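task queued by scheduler; priority normal; single chain, no ligands, no partner chains; default sampling; output format set to structure tokens
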Amino acid sequence: MGSRSFQAKAVLGLYTETSLHCGSESGNGLVDLPIQRERHSNFPVIPGSTIKGVLHDETTDEWGKLRDHYFGVMKDDKTTTPGSVSFSDGFLAAFPVRATNVPFAWVTCPMVLERVYRSLQMQWPASVPPLADGHGWVNEKGDISGSALLEDLVVAVTPAPASLLAPLEKLLPDDASFDYTRKIFPRRIVAVSDADFGWLVESATEVVTRIKLDPDSHTTSGKEGNMFNEELVPRDAIFACTIRELPRDGKEFPLKMIPDTLRIGGDETIGRGITWIKRIPLRAQ
């Protein structure tokens, strides 16, 4: 008997080629335009509605009328016919930070690693020991060892439990232009404690000051002219999103037709949000 619920179809790895701004609705007192974050963890997040909307707009010509089958029909800003696929929020899997000995390292944490395992339908190893604050795991023969400085955080790193960090490599793009990144990634990935990771992703995002010109005077003076601070997810961040599907009429979501790159979030005219996509099919349940 077939399930009437959405079933996991694939995971998308999202690798930011340029800094990304998926904005929240209001400022926080320090930043005028902050990024969206999970309410409970404060980790940066790409809303599933944003991913779905971008794909909906990007695939008009390729999918034609089937686009309505997969994404649903909208009329007067309301969904009149539901689509056959759903998109989870893009959760943060690895975050780039400044580090000693190398230009930057990617950081993750046990809680995030377990999310990656779960999304890829992999079993989280039962023997993984706890990871204390101020300590970290790296792959053996990596570029980071001993006492590492990650931003302003000092971490004593030791070899990770066997192959614990390997699933993160599945999220990297397949394109040949990423050959070097795929080579160095296992050598520069560090798992820190959940608390240390939370501090890093809260304090190490980019904040840039921008100028808004008055449309009449074309200067920073006037009613509409001012300066504002905008928060950004830095380039080289890695997110993961799960695609779920409710097959109807024998039409399965054409995963291969998702473009290799998408532009996600705001500030399109200044090059923000260019994101590489890795398509990872999941086994049937």
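post-processing summary
- The longest helix spans residues 48-58.
- Residues 80 and 278 are 31 Å apart (CA to CA).
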